[in-house]
Amino acid sequence: MAKIILEPNETFEHFHSEASSTILLSGTAHYRMEDIEQDLKPNVPVLTPPMKSHILTNTGIDECILGCSH
Would you identify the CATH topology of the domain 2-69? Predict the structure, then answer.
């Protein structure tokens, strides 16, 4: 699992050639993929299909840590 660390208000857009799973490990974050948007909940994975760009945004006042596996 890769770790993604985002500072407050930082945004990270990316995609993978395989399906991926993103999970909020600490902090507060928002997920967006095409018309799907949701605030991430701790330890609840969000699945992203292959080749779909998705955006993670830290919406809190502290850094957030996300896990991403694919």
Answer: Jelly Rolls (2.60.120)
Q: What is the DSSP letter of 54?
A: E
Given a contact cutoff of 8 angstroms between Cβ atoms, the answer to whether 21 and 69 are in contact is yes
Name the more confident of 1 and 42.
42
Task: Domain ranges for the chain, please list them.
Answer: 2-69
* Residue 54, CA distances (Å) to 12, 15, 51, 65 in order: 8, 6, 9, 16
Cβ-based burial of 56 (10 A; exposed 0-12, middle 13-18, buried ≥19): buried
Which residue in 26, 37, 34, 31 sits closest to 63, CA to CA? Answer: 26
pTM: 0.91
